[in-house]
Structures are given as structure tokens and as C-alpha cells.
Amino acid sequence: MSQDDEKERESRRIIGRVGAETEPSMAKRVQNHMNARDADENDWVEVWGTRIGRWLGVALLIYLVWWLIAFLMRGG
């Protein structure tokens, strides 16, 4: 086995491991963020206010992206 083959195999192993470790944790972090897991769970107003604010932020982002695409399609 050549040294290049060995390096390629090691690189693929590392990339596979990084992918396996980061994907689920990133999805979980986003889910926790959107569900306001970092807010004080004893204060329902803070939890729901945080959830509503974050979802409104996502909705605003989607609207702005849609508006930008429509604006550019009309010729700007």
C-alpha cells in the first residue's frame, strides 16, 4: 500500500468522524435554540416570548430573502 493511499484512507476516516460528530449536535443545538431551552423554564412568559421572537425572526428572514429574489427578478 502506498503512502498516498494510506493518507487518503486516514483523511476519509477523519472526515467521516467529524461529519458523524457534528451533524446531530448541530441539529440539536438549533432545535434547543428555537425551543428556548436556554430561557428560564420557571418563567413561562420568558420562554414563550423567546420562542415567539425567534420564530418571528425566522419568518422575517424568509420574507426578506423572498423580497430580495423578487426585486432582483424584476430587474432591480
Brief descriptors of the model:
mainly alpha, 0% strand, 2 helices, 76 residues
Summarize the topology:
Elements: H1 3-34, H2 44-73
Question: What is the helix content?
Answer: over 70%
Protein structure class: mainly alpha
- Please mark out the parts with pLDDT under 50 across 5 or more consecutive residues, or reply none: none
Strand content: under 5%
Radius of gyration: 21 Å
Largest sheet geometry: none
- Give average pLDDT, whole number: 89
Report the order of strands and helices: HH
State the helix count. 2
SS elements, strand count? 0
The first-to-last residue Cα distance is 58 Å
Shape: flat
What is the domain total for the residues? 1
Detailed description of the structure:
By secondary structure, the chain is mainly α. It has one domain (about 5-75). It has 2 helices and no strands. The chain has helices at about 5-35, 45-75. The protein is flat and about 60 Å long. It starts with a helix and ends with a helix. The mean pLDDT is about 90.
Question: Can I get a quick summary?
Answer:
This protein is an all-alpha fold and 76 residues long. The chain has two helices and no strands. Helix content is 82%, strand content 0%.
